[in-house]
């Protein structure tokens, strides 16, 4: 007996989606093209149902666009592209873990060695600071506009001068930007850093960042089973 074709509503109901969302996923290539009935209605199969499960499982760990690209590669099938996309996502997650460790170490060093009062008269120019951080001076000016940096002005020239505490703030902001934090959140982080009693809040930020990475890792691990099942289904339905 032939298996009953699945409707968009059948796929949608399993995940609490709308039928239109399923059709949109098909239009985006996230699930394979559906067969059509003589009347023109979409007819899905177990393969489509598993493709949708795999995509929705991939999305929390990989993000919408990478998960969509992974599924498109799986449909073709293009294993070389598929595995490259998976490897890239895991490499990026590892890179963010390394950055988090750098930020935590930098915070430890900064809190252990606060800026001395008699060092506050020293400072560096915007060009020197940009060179140290491997950035363009325009980015430092943008950070200043966002309230992250507070340079002084040389009274004779009017040029920006970054005292040690501003250099410290810039170094921390650089680490956080590499970790994907938006400027408003970095501003709050740096404001806490300027506050002598803010170390507990800073530790909370790092704890939440690490928890977020752990959730992504678990989501990637959980998604692997659904993607593997989909690849097996695709292989089993492929003509010999």
Q: What attributes does this structure have?
A:
240 residues; mainly alpha; Multidrug-efflux Transporter Regulator, Chain: A, Domain 2; 2 domains; 3-stranded antiparallel sheet; two-stranded antiparallel sheet; 10 helices; 5 strands; 68% helix; elongated
Main sheet specs: 3 strands, antiparallel
User: Counting H and I runs of at least 4 residues, what is the number of helices?
Assistant: 10
Percent helix range: 55-70%
| Inertia-based shape | elongated
Rg from Cα: 25 Å
User: CATH architecture of the largest domain, please?
Assistant: Orthogonal Bundle
Question: What is the ordering of alpha helices and beta strands?
Answer: HHEEHHHEHHEEHHH
Strand content: under 5%
Uncertain ranges: none
Q: Structural class per helix/strand content?
A: mainly alpha
CATH topology of the largest domain: Multidrug-efflux Transporter Regulator, Chain: A, Domain 2
Largest beta sheet: what is the strand line-up? 3-5-4
Distance between the termini: 22 Å
- Oligomerization category of the chains in this entry: single chain
Quote the average pLDDT.
87
Number of domains: 2
* Count of extended strands: 5
Tell me, what is the CATH class of the largest domain? Mainly Alpha
Topology:
Elements: H1 8-15, H2 19-27, E1 35-36, E2 42-43, H3 46-62, H4 64-75, H5 79-112, E3 124-125, H6 126-133, H7 137-145, E4 152-153, E5 160-162, H8 164-178, H9 183-194, H10 199-237
Antiparallel strand pairs: 1-2, 3-5, 4-5
Helix pairs in contact: 1-2, 3-4, 3-10, 4-5, 5-8, 5-10, 8-9
